[in-house]
Design brief:
By secondary structure, the protein is of the alpha/beta class. Helices cover 29% and strands 28% of the residues. This is Quinone oxidoreductase.
Length: 324
C-alpha cells in the first residue's frame, strides 16, 4: 500500500490528510508511475479550497510530477517500464504512486534530474505558452511580470531575457527583488514600498509595457492596466491574492483600447502535439543553460500541509516540491 495526500472536504491546509492509498493497476492506455517528486502550485490551493471544484470527493491533490514507469497497460507504445517521465495536468500527483493516461506524460532527458522536471513542468510550460504564444516576446518587447520571484516568475524572467525583451518584475521584499534580478529581470519593483504603476512609467520613460503577465489578481487590478501602452495586452493567468470582481469591459477602452485574456496552461495543451512541442521547448531552453530551474523548498509528502501554509503566506521563493 502506498501513501497519498487526500482531500475529503474542501477548506484550509488542515484538510490535507496523509493516508494509505491504492492507485490500482494501469488499464488500457495507462501507465503506473513510481513518483520521485510532485510539484506544488497555486492551482493545488484552488482545488483544496474549492475555488476550482473537483469532480469528486474525496480526491488526491496535485497536478504535476515526475517519476519512473513501473508498469504499462494494454496498448501503451509511448513508454516502457523504467522510462523517466514527467507530466502536468494529471490529477492526483501528491502520491507515492499514480496511474495516469500515458499520453499525458513526456520522456525526461537524461541530463535533467527528475526533481527538477517535477518542479519545471507546470511552471516552465506556463512560461512557455505565455512568452511564446499568448504574447510572442522578442527584442522589441517591454513586459511586466508580477510575482517575479515565484516559480513561474523566475523561469519567465530568464526566458524573456533570452528572447531579448526588456523585463520588469514586481516582488514583495528586498530578498525577492534581489533573487529576481539574478534571474533575468532588468528592473524589479518592491510593491510593498513603491507604487508599481508609477515605477513602470518611470522605468519606461512613459512608454509603458506591451504586455503585463498577472498571476496575482485582486491586489494588482486595475493597476496592471495602467502599466500598458495603448492596445497592450493584459494576460491574467492566476489570482493568488483573491478572485477579481466582475469587470466592466468598458475599462479596457477607457485605458487605451487594451486587450485582455484569461489563459490557462491546459487551454494551450489541447492535444499530444501541443504537449510535446511545449515540453521540447522547455527542455531545450533548460539544456542550453538559458533557463535554470531553482527549487527553493523541498518538503516530504507528509508535510503537504506545511507546504501549503508556506505557499499561501508568501514565504516561498522559486519552485516548491514534495519529495517522495
Amino acid at each position: 500500500m502506498s501513501k497519498a495526500i487526500i482531500v475529503k472536504k474542501t477548506g484550509g491546509p488542515e484538510v490535507l490528510s496523509f493516508e494509505d492509498y491504492d492507485p490500482g493497476k494501469p488499464g488500457k492506455g495507462e501507465i503506473l508511475v513510481e513518483q520521485k517528486a510532485a510539484g506544488i502550485n497555486f492551482i493545488d490551493v484552488y482545488f483544496r479550497t474549492g475555488l476550482y471544484p473537483s469532480d469528486k470527493l474525496p480526491f488526491v491533490l496535485g497536478k504535476e510530477g515526475a517519476g519512473i514507469v513501473a508498469e504499462v497497460g494494454e496498448g501503451v507504445t509511448l513508454f516502457k517500464t523504467g522510462d523517466r517521465v514527467a507530466y502536468n495536468g494529471v490529477s492526483g500527483t501528491y502520491a507515492e504512486r499514480i496511474v495516469m493516461a500515458a499520453d499525458k506524460a513526456v520522456l525526461v532527458p537524461e541530463t535533467i534530474e527528475l526533481e527538477t522536471a517535477a518542479a519545471a513542468m507546470l511552471k516552465g510550460m506556463t512560461a512557455e505558452y505565455l512568452l511564446r504564444r499568448t504574447y510572442p516576446v522578442d527584442s522589441d518587447t517591454v513586459l511586466l511580470f508580477h510575482a517575479a520571484a515565484g516559480g513561474v516568475g523566475l523561469i519567465a524572467g530568464q526566458w524573456a531575457k533570452h528572447l531579448g525583451a526588456t523585463v520588469i518584475g514586481t516582488a514583495g521584499s528586498k530578498e525577492k527583488c534581489d533573487l529576481a534580478l539574478k534571474n533575468g529581470y532588468d528592473h524589479v519593483i518592491n510593491y510593498r514600498e513603491q507604487d508599481f504603476v508609477k515605477e513602470v512609467e518611470r522605468i519606461t520613460g512613459g512608454r509603458k509595457c506591451d504586455v503585463v503577465y498577472d498571476s496575482v489578481g485582486k491586489d494588482t487590478f486595475p493597476g496592471s492596466l495602467d502599466c500598458l501602452r495603448a492596445r497592450g495586452l493584459w494576460a491574467s493567468f492566476g489570482q493568488s491574492s483573491g478572485k477579481l470582481e466582475p469587470i466592466d469591459l468598458g475599462i479596457l477602452n477607457q485605458k487605451g483600447s487594451l486587450y485582455a485574456t484569461r489563459p490557462s496552461l491546459f487551454g494551450y495543451l489541447t492535444n499530444r502535439a501541443e504537449l510535446e512541442a511545449s515540453a521540447k521547448a522547455l527542455f531545450d531552453v533548460m539544456a542550453s543553460g538559458a533557463v535554470k530551474i531553482t527549487i527553493g523548498q523541498r518538503y516530504k509528502l507528509s508535510e503537504a500541509e506545511k507546504a501549503h501554509r508556506d505557499l499561501e503566506s508568501r514565504k516561498t521563493t522559486a519552485a516548491s516540491i514534495l519529495t517522495i
